[in-house]
From TrEMBL:
Binding site for Zn(2+) 2: D94, E129, H382
Superkingdom to which the source organism belongs: Bacteria
Residues annotated as binding Zn(2+) 1: H83, D94, H190
Organism annotation: Halomonas icarae
Protein name: Hydantoinase/carbamoylase family amidase
One Pfam assignment: Peptidase_M20
Length: 410
């Protein structure tokens, strides 16, 4: 059983086929959570899993559990998985890899006629990206008891459509209660989404921790008025205030190096007309750091700095931290299985902290969990140019297989 290897070409072909659903001209993918395209991606995954002999369960957050029976089906499964939703200008690998790596493991075990002691599951977590429905990782969060179901289902997009309505519309509001199953362990394979592995010529990232995140929503209100007759000194320009806060956010990130990340990624200007002084601006802030204390200091600096800016610019501010996901240490027994699998397979590897958020961060609260990273080209992700090498993807999937087998048979 030690010699089995996954099928590199089949994994690659499945990634490319899934990537066609929402495929973009630049070779990326736009498959936002709970859109018709997300439904198509889910349907394809379910079809492939059924063909691989799995039974399918969908819960009320639309999380999909594809189960391959084991010798003793009274035991909790060893689970794998990630997400199928993407960013608006996303790639073909972020999330999808972790899902299809799980499927590839089922196909490999079937082909080899291998039965594991515990059942295995591959999970698709709904709306990991949080791009359409903030916050990120919301459905694994409900599963782990971080959020309640009502909170999850009421998350709304910028048009006011809720996750609950959209889940029903696409037919993925399942019957199972969310969180009503136990995992013996959970493993998520993912592209690194940063440059470290590629720079150091390492094929496998053994992920020991994930950094914490704080997300904010800020609305600044000034006064709309005519861009011609309104004198500069009397203006209450909400966009000028927002621009200063963007500067502040960037400075906070720079002042907390190494490791801090600080981003304003979304902004809406009202009324967004070239000859009207902007009366209102809505924007988001994303702060990340592996140390909760530093994140706290960044939070303080943002609150104090933003208050000063709006006072000076004569604006009103609605300021809300909408999400805090603390730093996550992964379980030593799972981290060491990933390390050992990489060693046994003779693959170059290093330990690392995840810069991105992943469903594994929440599942770590309810099951021993860890992650396997593989390199992506130039570390580029959340971009249509996201690329990964078929050999690296296969190597990561083989590591995943070994780690999963150790827990499923041990
Ligand atoms: C989502 O992919 C995130 O890590 O922000
Ligand atoms: Mn992802
Ligand atoms: Mn992502
Ligand atoms: Mn992510």
């Amino acid at each position: 059983m030690n010699d089995i290897r996954i099928n590199k070409q089949r994994l690659w072909d499945s990634l490319m086929e899934m990537g066609e659903i929402g495929g973009t001209e630049k070779g990326g993918c736009c498959r936002l959570a709970l859109t018709d395209l997300d439904k198509q991606g889910r349907d394809l995954f379910v079809k492939w899993c059924e063909e691989a002999g799995c039974s399918i369960t969908v819960d009320k957050m639309g999380n999909i559990f594809a189960r391959r029976p084991g010798k003793d089906n009274s035991l909790p499964p060893v689970a794998m998985g990630s997400h199928l939703d993407t960013q608006p200008t996303g790639g073909k690998f972020d999330g999808v890899y972790g899902v299809l790596a799980g499927l590839e493991i089922f196909r490999t075990l079937n082909e080899q006629g291998i039965e594991t002691q515990t059942p295995l599951e591959t999970v698709v977590w709904t709306n990991e990206e949080g791009s359409r429905f903030p916050p990120a990782m919301v459905s694994s969060g409900v599963f782990a008891g971080v959020f309640d179901l009502e909170y999850g289902l009421s998350r709304a997009d910028l048009d006011g459509k809720t996750m609950g309505d959209e889940l029903r519309r696409i037919g993925y509001y399942g019957e199972a209660e969310v969180g009503d199953r136990e995992f013996k362990a959970f493993f998520e394979a993912h592209i690194e989404q940063g440059p470290i592995l590629e720079d150091e010529h390492k094929q496998i990232g053994v992920v020991t921790d994930a950094q914490g995140q704080r997300w904010y929503e800020i609305t600044l209100t000034g006064q709309e008025s005519h861009a011609g007759p309104t004198p500069m000194p009397s203006r209450r320009d909400a966009l000028v205030g927002a621009a200063r806060i963007v500067e502040l956010v960037n400075r906070i990130g720079m002042e907390n190096q190494p490791n801090a990340c600080a981003t304003v990624g979304l902004m809406q200007v009202f009324p967004n007309s070239r000859n009207v002084i902007p009366g209102q601006v809505f924007f988001t802030v994303d702060f990340r750091h592996p140390d909760a204390k530093v994140l706290e200091r960044m939070d303080q600096a943002l609150r104090e700095g933003a208050a000063g800016i709006v006072e000076e610019a004569k604006l009103e501010m609605a300021f809300e931290q909408i999400w805090y996901s603390p730093p996550v240490p992964f379980a030593e027994q799972c981290v060491s299985s990933v390390r050992k699998a990489a060693e046994d397979l003779g693959l170059s590897h290093r330990e690392m902290v995840s810069g991105a958020g992943h469903d594994a961060c929440y599942i770590a609260r309810v099951a021993p969990t860890s992650m396997v990273f593989v390199p992506c080209e130039k570390g580029i992700s959340h971009n249509e140019l996201e690329r990964a090498d078929a050999d690296d993807l296969a190597a990561g999937c083989n590591v995943l297989l070994k780690a999963v087998l150790e827990h499923a048979n041990g």
